[in-house]
Amino acid sequence: MQLNSVELFKIAQQMEQMGIKFYERAYEFSNQDKEKETFLKLAKMEREHLKFFTLMEKKAENAKYCVSDEIDSYLKENFPSNIFDSDISKKIGKELKTMKDIISYAIEKEKDAIEYYLKISKNVSDIDENSLAAIRTIIKEEESHVEFLKELL
Ligand SMILES: [Fe+2]
Ligand SMILES: [Fe+2]
Q1: Nearest 5°: phi and psi at 93?
Q2: What is the pLDDT at residue 11?
Q3: Dist. CA 34 → ligand 1 center (Å)
Q4: By mean pLDDT, which of 31-35, 52-56, 67-71 is the weakest?
Q5: Mean pLDDT within 11-40
Q6: How far, in Å, CA of 138 to CA of 95, rounded?
Q7: Separation of 49 CA from ligand 2 center, angstroms?
Q8: How far is the CA of 145 from the centre of ligand 2 (A)?
Q9: What is the DSSP letter of 30?
């Protein structure tokens, strides 16, 4: 699948939005202070990531692309389903019944994000050094999320 950088950053935004919703829901679901604190922290960090990828998309648009409905429909057709599950936060309390289920699932999603952002960092050519460095920082932060989550298990 070939994607341009606008599309890549749109997918990244979707992933971050899913993460924010998931951690907000996990926060509500939990009744334990340490868990709540971690989910709150994770949601906050994902919000920063979302801001960054939104900015990156705008930059890419200005540089090379115009806004296009085609990109949106393309993404809907081609989004890898393991990354773009409709609304993963709705799994909490259903498929994900226990806190252990929720945390293990979140760890898998963080790993998906890491893998995806590594792909972006290797495949996007029209990107400046600062932006690339910022993506690498986000990858490190996602890796730290895996560690924060493991501490809850
Ligand atoms: Fe993130
Ligand atoms: Fe994360």
Answers
A1: 90, -10
A2: 86
A3: 20
A4: 67-71
A5: 96
A6: 29
A7: 8
A8: 5
A9: -
Residues with CB under 5 A from ligand 1 (ion): 16, 46, 49
**How much is the mean pLDDT over the chain?**
87
Q: Which one is predicted more confidently, 57 or 98? A: 98
Domains of the chain by start residue, with CATH: 5-152 (1.20.1260.10)
Neighbours of ion ligand 2 (CB under 5 A): 110, 142, 145
3-class DSSP state of 83: coil
Q: Is 30 exposed, middle or buried (0-12, 13-18, 19+ CB in 10 A)?
A: buried
pTM: 0.87
Q: Is 117 exposed, middle or buried (0-12, 13-18, 19+ CB in 10 A)?
A: buried
Q: Which ligand is nearest to the CA of 38?
A: 2
What are the C-alpha distances in Å from 96 to residues 12, 20, 25, 67, 99? 24, 17, 12, 37, 8
What is the percent of the chain where pLDDT is above 70? 81
Place of tokens 């920082």: 137
Whole-number CA gyration radius for the chain? 16
